[in-house]
Amino acid sequence: MFLPTYQRLNILNPVETNHQFIRPFMKRTGLVLAAFLILTVFAAAQERLLSVDDIFSPDPKVRIPFGGSPVRLIWTSDGKSFRQTQDGKLVRVNAETGESAPFYDSAKFASALQSAAGMKADEADRIANSVTLHFNNSETAILFNHANDLWYYTLANGKISRLTNNKDEELEEDLSPDGKWVSFVRGNNLFVVDIARGRERQITRDGTDKIFNGYLDWVYEEELYGRGQKRGYWWSPDSKWIAFLRLDDTNVPNFVLANDTVNDQMIENTPYPQAGDPNPNVKLGLVDIAAPGRATRAMRAGASAARFADLSSYDPSDLLIGRVVWTPNSNSVLIQAQNRIQTFLDLVSVSLGGKTKRLFRETSPAWVGINDNPFFLKDGSFVWQSERDGWNHLYMYAADGRLVKRMTQGKWEVRGVFGIDEAAGWVYFNGTKDSHIAENIYRVKISDGTIERLSQGDGSHSALFNPTFTHYVGGWSDINTPPKQRLYKADGSLVRTINENNVEALAQFKLGPADFLKVKNRDGFEMEAMMIRPPDFDPNKKYPVLIYTYAGPHAPQVRNGWGGSRQMWHQMLAQKGYIIWVCDNRSASGKGIESTWTMYKSFGPTELNDIEDGISYLKSLNFVDGNRIGIWGWSFGGFMTSYALTHSKSFKMGIAGGSVTDYALYDSIYTERYMLTPQLNPAGYDRTNVLKAAKDLNGRLLLIHGVMDDNVHMQNTTKFVYELQKAGKQFDLMLYPNQRHGVNNPPQVHQMYSMMTEYILRNL
C-alpha cells in the first residue's frame, strides 16, 4: 500500500525517522543549495549587456553569431538524400539516418580544375566542395563558370571540357533538362552549346546595352521576377525549345550613378523608368533547338533564330509579361500579361507557332498582383493562385482555362505553393490559416478540399520538400529562438533533428521580453503589434518609445520568428531604457490584399493614421513617455519616417534610410501598381510628396543613403536636403559611398549602427 509522505512520517518511530530521513533531508538540502547556486550563476550570466560590437563588429572573432549556424541543404534528385558541406567537404547525407559519405571524388575534380582551368589549389578545393555546384539532373556532370568562360566536367572519366573561349562574359548559364545542351547569355544575346559536339549556336543577334534577350533588365528583375533573378529564358521540359523575353529599353531613360571613391570617377548608366516614363517593350520569343538547319540558315542571314508570339491584341507600350512557364507536354507556354498600371492580369497560352489564346482574366477593385506560376498536373490541369476575393487562395483549372473548383477559402491567405504530389492527391503550401504573424505548413486534398496542418506549435515554419514529396526539411523559429531544422515525413510526422542550432551565447545576455498584442485602429481594424520592454522594466517609470516601421503594402513586420541582427539591436536599445514598438498598419498587415486597398492611389495618409492610432494606444499606458516617441525605417519605411516627421507632431526624432521622397522619382512598375501614373493621378502624387512638405518638418531627422543606390536613387535624399535647406530646417545626413539600397560592407554597417545608436541616445 502506497501512502502519502505525511502519513509515512506519522507512523515512523523517532529512531527510524533519524536513521531513514536525516540522509534524504541532507540530500534534498544539498540539491536546493546546488540549485540556488546554479540559478545564481545563471542569473549572473544573463546580466551581460549587448554592444554594437557584439552584433555588428566587422571582426568575426568579436561578432557573436546570434543566429547560430543553419545548415545549407540541397535535396538530391532521388529525394532520399541531400548535398551538404561537412568540415569543408561536400557530402551526401542520407535524409532519414543522417549518415554521410563523400558526394563524389571532389579531390579529383579539384585537381582537374587546377590543371585544366588554371585555378589555385585553395580556390579549386572551395569550388569542388561547394554545396551549390551546378550538377545535371542525373548528377553525373558539373557545369561551372570560371574566368568568363563555361566549363563542363564529367564525373565518370574526370574530363573537363571548355565550352566557350573568348573574352566576353557568359551569364545565366543553364543545362537543358536532358543534360545535352548548355544555354547562356553573352552580350545580351542568347546562345546554346551542344555539349557532345562542343558546337556553339547563337540564337539572337540584336542584343545591345538597350536590347536584352533572355536576360532581365533592372526593372523587370526588381519588380516582376524578384531581386537576384536575372534569367529571362526557360527550357521546355522535353529540351527541344527555349522560350525567352526580349526587352527593348530604347525609350527607357538612363539613370546615371557616379562612384567618386576612385580617382578616375566610375560612371554607371542603367535604364530606369521612373513613374510615367516609357517601360521596356517586351516580346516573347520561341526557339526550336532541335531544328539546327533552320537556326543555322537564320544565323547566316544575320537574323534571329526565334519566332515571336503574336501579342498584337496588346499595346506594346502598355504591356508587361510577369511570368513565363512551359506546360508539361512542351506544346505551349503560359504567360501572365498585364497592362502597365496592373488593373488586370491575363493568363495567355502561346503555341509553338506563336499563336495566342487568352484563357482567362483576373481583375480587382485596385490592382492585380503576380502570384507566381501555376502548378500542373499530368493532364495539363493546374492549380492557380488568385486574390480575386481579397485573399490569396488556390483554384483548380482545366488545361483549357476553365475553372474546375475552388480549393481553399477564408479570411487567411496562402503565402506560397511548394508543389503537388499528384499520386497521393495533395497540394502542399504555406499560409496564415492559424496565425497572421506566424506561417505554417499545410496540405489540401485535391479531391475534396480537406486541409491538414503539418507544422505544430507556435512560431514560424518553413519547408524544403524533396522532389518526390515524401519528406521535407522543416525550419522553425520564434521571436526568442534562432532557426532549427528538422526532417519530417510528408504527413508532418517528425523523423529526426538535423540541426538543433542552440546558440549558447544568447543565455549570457539580459534580454527584454517581447510581447505580441493587437491594437484597433480608428476604423476598428485589428493591427498586429509587438513590444519589447527593457529587461529591468518598472511599470512605475516613464519610458521613451522607438517605433520601427516599414508600412509598405502587404509587407508585415510583426512576426513570431527570429529577427536577426536588427532584432538584437532593438534588444540593445531596450537595455538602454527604450521601449521598442512595431505595429503593422492595415495596408502592411499581410491580412489579404483587401487590407491594402485603403492606400490605393495615395501613399502616406492612411498609413500615418494607423501609426498614430498605435501611438494613441501607447500614450494610454502609464509607463510610456508620450513626449519622447521616435520612429525609424528603411526604403518604404524611410519614406514613411520622412512623411511622418513632415505631416505629424507626434515624433521627437526620426531616422530615414534609403527613402523615397517623391514617388514620381521611383520606378514605374512598383509605383504605378499602387499609384497609377503621375499623368493619371496627379493629386495622389501631390499628397504623398515629402519634398513639398519639407517646410513642415517637426522633430530631429537623420537621413541615410547609399551613394550607389540603384533602387531608390540618392536623388530622393538630395532633393529633400535641398528643400529642407531652402526652408531653413535643420537636419542630419550620413552618406555611404560604394553602398547601394542596403549598407552591406561590414565596417560601414558597424559605423552606421554605432552612429544611429548615438543619435537615438542624444535625441530621444
Helix-strand layout with pairing:
Blueprint: H1 5-11, H2 14-45, H3 52-56, E1 74-75, E2 81-86, E3 89-94, E4 100-102, H4 106-117, H5 121-128, E5 134-135, E6 141-146, E7 149-154, E8 159-162, E9 171-175, E10 181-186, E11 189-194, E12 199-202, E13 211-213, H6 218-225, E14 233-235, E15 241-248, E16 254-259, E17 266-271, E18 281-288, H7 292-300, E19 307-308, E20 320-326, E21 332-338, E22 344-351, E23 356-363, E24 375-376, E25 382-386, E26 393-397, E27 403-406, E28 414-421, E29 426-431, E30 440-445, E31 451-453, E32 460-465, E33 471-478, E34 481-489, E35 494-499, E36 514-520, E37 526-532, E38 543-548, H8 564-575, E39 579-583, H9 605-619, E40 624-634, H10 636-647, E41 653-657, H11 668-675, H12 682-687, E42 700-706, H13 715-726, E43 732-736, H14 746-763
Parallel strand pairs: 38-39, 38-40, 40-41, 41-42, 42-43
Antiparallel strand pairs: 1-2, 2-3, 3-4, 5-6, 6-7, 7-8, 9-10, 10-11, 11-12, 13-15, 14-15, 15-18, 16-17, 18-19, 20-21, 21-22, 22-23, 24-25, 25-26, 26-27, 28-29, 29-30, 30-31, 32-33, 33-34, 34-35, 36-37, 37-39
Helix pairs in contact: 4-5
Descriptive account of the structure:
Helices cover 21% and strands 32% of the residues. The chain is of the alpha+beta class and 764 residues long. Strands 36-37-39-38-40-41-42-43 form an eight-stranded mixed sheet, with helices on both faces. Strands 13, 14, 15, 18 and 19 form a five-stranded antiparallel sheet that branches. Strands 1-2-3-4 form a four-stranded antiparallel sheet, with no helix packed on it. A hairpin with a 4-residue loop joins β11 and β12.
